[in-house]
Design a protein that fits this description.
The chain is an alpha+beta fold. The chain has five helices and five strands; from the N terminus they run H-H-E-E-E-E-H-H-E-H. It has helices spanning 10-22, 25-33, 80-87, 93-98, 108-112, and strands at residues 37-43, 52-57, 62-65, 74-79, 102-106. Residues 25-115 form the SCP2 domain.
């Protein structure tokens, strides 16, 4: 079953690709390099409204839909288009934060390790 099942967000497709990416050797590499758990909340139009939550677990190299069962190292909140822009490297994460396009809760040092480089290069999104 895909992580994106039942979602209308473009970000959900990226989360599917991320799940497949983590099943490859890249997952092992990210476990060693980062080894943190992130929750990503994505909303269609306004942060905090009708959001979908995803857990990107870089301790166990997996992605799941729904809120994190334990406290994540950092939680990010985005609007769908802004998340896609950051994940694809079209928007600088620091600028997204400064402009209010990304909200962060939790460890700032953990948040700084969550960069576009951890995402697979999109095929057709």
């Amino acid at each position: 079953m895909a992580v994106s099942d039942g979602s209308k967000l473009r970000s959900a497709e990226l989360m599917d690709q991320m799940a497949k990416h983590l099943e490859t050797g890249a997952g092992e590499e990210l476990k060693k390099k980062i080894g943190l758990v992130y929750q990503i909340n994505v909303s269609p139009k306004k942060i905090g409204i009708d959001e979908e939550s995803y857990v990107v677990d870089l301790k166990n190299a997996k992605v799941s839909k729904g809120p994190c069962k334990e406290k994540p190292d950092a939680t990010f909140s985005f609007v769908d288009g802004d998340f896609m822009a950051v994940a694809m490297g079209k928007m600088n994460p620091q600028m997204a934060f400064i402009r209010g396009k990304m909200k962060i809760k939790g460890s700032m040092s953990a948040a700084q390790k969550f960069t576009p480089e951890i995402f697979p290069k999109p095929s057709k999104l």
